[in-house]
Amino acid sequence: MGSLEVEKKAIGWAARDPSGILSPYTYTLRNTGPDDVQVKILYCGLCHSDIHQVKNDLGMSNYPMVPGHEVVGEVVEVGPEVSKFKVGDIVGVGLLVGCCKTCRPCKQDIEQYCAKKIWNCNDVYTDGKPTQGGFANFMVVEQKFVVKIPDGMAPEQAAPLLCAGVTVYSPLNHFGFNQSGLRGGILGLGGVGHMGVKIAKAMGHHVTVISSSDKKRQEALDHLGADDYLVSSDNEKMQEAADSLDYIIDTVPVNHPLEPYLSLLKVDGKLILMGVINTPLQFVSPMVMLGRKSITGSFIGSMKETEEVLHFCKEKVVTSQIEMVKMDYINTAMERLEKNDVRYRFVVDVAGSKLDQ
User: Fold this and answer.
1) Distance between CA 67 and CA 215 in Å, rounded?
2) 341, exposed or middle or buried, with CB in 10 Å at 0-12, 13-18, 19+?
3) Which residues pair with 250 in a beta bridge?
4) 227 DSSP 8-state letter
5) Enoyl reductase (ER) domain: which residues (predicted)?
6) Cα–Cα distance measured from residue 53 to residue 58, given in angstroms and rounded to the nearest whole number
7) Which residues have a Cβ under 8 Å from the Cβ of 286 and sit 6 or more positions away?
8) What is the DSSP string of 49-61?
9) Is-contact 167 60, C-beta < 8 A?
10) Residue 131 near residue 123, CB atoms below 8 Å
11) Is residue 116 within 8 Å of 104, Cβ to Cβ?
12) Which residues contact 162 (CB under 8 A, 6 or more apart)?
């Protein structure tokens, strides 16, 4: 790829096996190529899919693995062909660091659906070396897969927007649910769900949070600004809400029945799946047929949409609700995330952490 200087060592926290326990790990960064940006990592969000990866839940994990794909950092070096960034810029890097650039999705600027996309960790880059994620001090990334954090946006607040935020924004944008006056449902109030409430409200929607228990009612209504709250086991309230929603964003990352939520949709309503689930989901076909309803999915967002959601959130003053931790707390943070014990996104202060201990 060519280089500006010799390869550098990076220090990250990596899993070595499916226990998913992270500990310090030193590895070599690839050389900064002509079209590359080297980023000093400041912050990195923790996503539920990081846990899937480090624990080999999908049977595709390779070790050692440095996870983390909600990366915010400072540009410290640029290649000679880099035109979008300069040293000192505060930038973001999400889940993708490569694509083929020639297939139909790539030509349509929806590179997240490229069959040859390259993940920012647990993948192999074009140079044959494994990719490593954002729980580390440095990354080297092609400029196409880097976005500028808008001036005035707190960098730690920007981190969850690079996955959780754009994951919600993309389907609302694509399916035409970005107009005001719609009625939407957010199923599950975790990292993605809480961004779903905030972004949908900023778009002018009436938002109903749907949860398995009543314990998050006050948070949803009073703190996040949701308009209504449904407990999925309350059959009476669920029946009263039947045929009332234009869409439901389903963020639940574990197996769950779909029928109760399909009944909430209007004719032509959409149930949009976002949780990564490694077991089959089931539904009876009349639940879809008798309302011309759709069960669909959406995967993160394009680079264009990532830039859009950052500017949308800046303009609408939408912020993520985070709990800041240091890297030495990351294993505890993952345990808590599995128990849904975070409001609502962990962000690791990477630059403020001692990575070698």
Assistant:
1) 31
2) exposed
3) 187, 273
4) S
5) 20-348
6) 7
7) none
8) HHHHHHTTTTS--
9) no
10) yes
11) no
12) 45, 69, 70, 71, 72, 92, 93, 94, 147, 306
Q: Which helix (H) or strand (E) holds 333?
A: helix 330-338
How far is the C-alpha of 68 from the C-alpha of 237, rounded, in Å?
39
| Amino acid residing at 39 | V
Q: What's the one-letter identity of residue 121?
A: C
Long-range interactions of 115-119: CB distance < 8 A, separation 24+: 119/69, 119/95
Length of the chain in residues, anyone?
A: 357
d(CA 334, CA 267): 39
The residue type found at 282 is Q
The whole model's pTM is what?
Answer: 0.93
**Phi, psi dihedral angles at 337 (to 5 degrees):** -60, -40
In this predicted model, what pLDDT tens digit does every residue of 81-115 receive, in sequence order? 999 999 999 999 999 999 999 999 999 999 999 99
Both tokens of residue 50? 């990081």
∠ Cα 222 155 81 (to 5°): 145
**266-293: burial string, b at 16+ Cβ within 10 Å, e else:** beebbbbbbbbeeeeeeeeeebbeebeb
**Residues 226-271: tens digit of each pLDDT:** 999 999 999 999 999 999 999 999 999 889 999 999 999 999 999 9
